Amino acid sequence: xxxxRTEFVDPANAPLFGTVVERVxxxxxxxFKIATPLGELVIxxxxxxxxxPHAGAAVHLAWANEHLRVLARNGVPFMVLTVWAALQRQDPxxxxxAQSLGARSATVFRRAVLPQAMPGVLPGSLIVFSLSASAFxxxxxxxxxxxAMTVYDEILNMLNWPLGAAIAVTLLVAVLVMMIAWNSxxxxxxxxxxx
Length: 195
What we know:
The protein is 51% helix and 17% strand. It folds into two domains: 4-61, CATH 2.40.50; 67-189, MetI-like fold. The longest helix is centred in the middle third of the chain and has 29 residues, at 105-133. It has helices at residues 67-88, 92-100, 105-133, 147-157, 161-189; strands spanning 4-5, 16-26, 29-36, 39-46, 58-61. It is α+β, with helices and mostly antiparallel strands. Mean pLDDT is 76; it is low at 1-5, 7-12 and 64-68. It has a five-stranded mixed β-sheet with strand order 1-4-3-2-5, with no helix packed on it.
């Protein structure tokens, strides 16, 4: 995991909070592993001579507009594994044949590799989309409402079970419609490849 550069800030201005799991001093900077509601983040900070948080300390991070990057980072393994499985089934002779017929690398990728990888791209993108659509935590904390958080609040905090259930079913239906539409679009575009 690549370390991110961010600053610790006052709790009132903190879009993301967490707990220091581990800290390591690397010459002129600190490396922190921080457990957040989004998962573990690794961040670096320049050593400015301040008293740095110790393991177990609660920290608040200046983390602006990072929701999509964190969601993407959490979804990458699902996408990589499905695409990798599809690429393992490819026949390397197809690529060599296209190159021997004079196709450039971009053409080989677009016409030989990508169509054969689509059986992995389709399920991977559907898995990542469904996980991201139902994400519970956001870097902005409670200030930004997501559907999963709204369902949680309605059912457990407000005890409004009918509204919470209605919102959850609406999310489920919306995700299913998007998944069916994406599935049919991809299958239509790569009709002979996906069976």
